[in-house]
Write a structure and sequence with these properties.
mainly alpha, 0% strand, Permease
Length: 246
């Protein structure tokens, strides 16, 4: 399963990098992000074993489309400024969907937790759309993907978590810093931070996936791989904002 997650993540990353390379089209990364969000919307409720899966998938699709559209066409003070509003609406819809199932329905609380988590992850994926509207969309995507790959090499092994949690992020940070040797307009420490954060994300998700043993089929593989890509966009975006890059 580790190798399948890595390969699926690489395919998703290639889609984003290809979209990021189309610099003349601001919405290209948004379109790529939406494709990944739709895949995640289907796979996530099935990975966590939620009840009323189609209802939760529909909510995730709605929130993904709303967040990405708001990012592209109603950026406000920041391209991600409407994300919290979409998350709030999505959480409300999740609660309503479970209330409608009736008081005797099983798994309502676990489905609320799964749905809320999925809404947050899906909406954060619109950060890739936000990156596509800036001048540093491709550098951000490239360094993030290299960071994910650096840590992913360790994650696909059978090494214990204490090793992968240490060496994976270090390798990711090193690759991120090395990528700045290319004319990306990014300082080495900025690349290192973005890569390091992406590496920590991979190592942490790998540890959680192994401890819960929840990835048992291809749907689970897609949920983990695509979810990781979506969250990495948000971590890189906010790291960039903190570093005042761009």
């Amino acid at each position: 399963m580790r190798i399948k997650v890595l390969l699926s993540g690489l395919l998703a990353s290639a889609l984003l990098l290809g979209a990021a390379g189309i610099g003349a089209v601001d919405w290209a990364m948004g379109a790529a992000a939406l494709v990944l969000q739709l895949v995640f919307a289907y796979a996530w409720p099935r990975l966590v074993g939620a009840h009323a899966r189609w209802a939760l998938s529909a909510i995730l699709v709605l929130c993904s489309a709303a967040a990405t559209a708001a990012t592209l066409f109603m950026p406000g003070d920041s391209p991600m400024s409407h994300g919290i509003e979409v998350i709030a609406a999505g959480v409300l819809l999740v609660f309503i969907s479970q209330v409608q199932r009736g008081a005797e329905a099983q798994g309502r609380m676990s489905s609320v937790v799964a749905g809320t988590t999925g809404v947050v992850m899906a909406v954060l994926g619109s950060s890739w759309a936000a990156a596509g509207t800036t001048s540093f969309g491709f550098p951000l995507a490239l360094v993030t993907v290299l960071g994910l790959l650096g840590s992913g090499v360790f994650a696909m092994t059978r090494l214990p978590n204490r090793i992968t949690l240490g060496f994976g992020p270090l390798a990711a940070g090193a690759l991120g810093a090395a990528a700045t040797a290319f004319p990306l307009g990014m300082a080495w420490y900025e690349g290192a931070v973005i890569g390091l954060v992406a590496g920590i994300l991979v190592a942490a998700i790998r540890a959680m996936a192994l401890s819960t043993r929840s990835v048992k089929n291809f749907t689970g593989v897609l949920a983990v791989a695509v979810g990781m890509i979506l969250i990495s966009g948000a971590t890189s975006w906010y790291a960039v904002e903190l570093l005042h890059f761009g």
